[in-house]
């Protein structure tokens, strides 16, 4: 804690995604990445996190884009 009694560690971003027209979240980045691997979030799924100016397709968000070696096993991400 700092002099004001506040915890100086940053809080993790809260992530959201759209499923159809329904907003889902907040969830952690680890959960969001698991949804990508499970095929429930595809490249065109819109996602947003604290601090992002606008919703973006998952394919445009480096934090959740699967690495090349994993993309081979995810048909939607090839």
Number of strands: 4
Please give the largest β-sheet: 4 strands, antiparallel
Oligomeric description of these chains: single chain
Q: What is the third-level CATH name, the topology?
A: Dna Ligase, domain 1
Question: How big a fraction of the residues is strand?
Answer: 15-25%
What number of structural domains do the residues give? 1
Any idea what the shape is? globular
Named at the architecture level, the CATH assignment is 2-Layer Sandwich
SSE string, helices as H and strands as E = EEHEEH
Separate helix tally: 2
Low-pLDDT residue spans: none
Give the SSE map:
Layout (H helix, E strand, L loop, with lengths): L14 E5 L2 E6 L1 H9 L8 E4 L6 E2 L10 H4 L7
Structure in words:
- The chain has 78 residues and is α+β, with helices and mostly antiparallel strands.
- It has a single domain (15-77), classed as Dna Ligase, domain 1.
- The chain contains two helices and four strands.
- A four-stranded antiparallel β-sheet has the order 2-1-3-4.
- A hairpin with a 2-residue loop joins strand 1 and strand 2 (22-27).
- The radius of gyration is 15 Å and the shape is globular.
- The N and C termini lie far apart (45 Å).
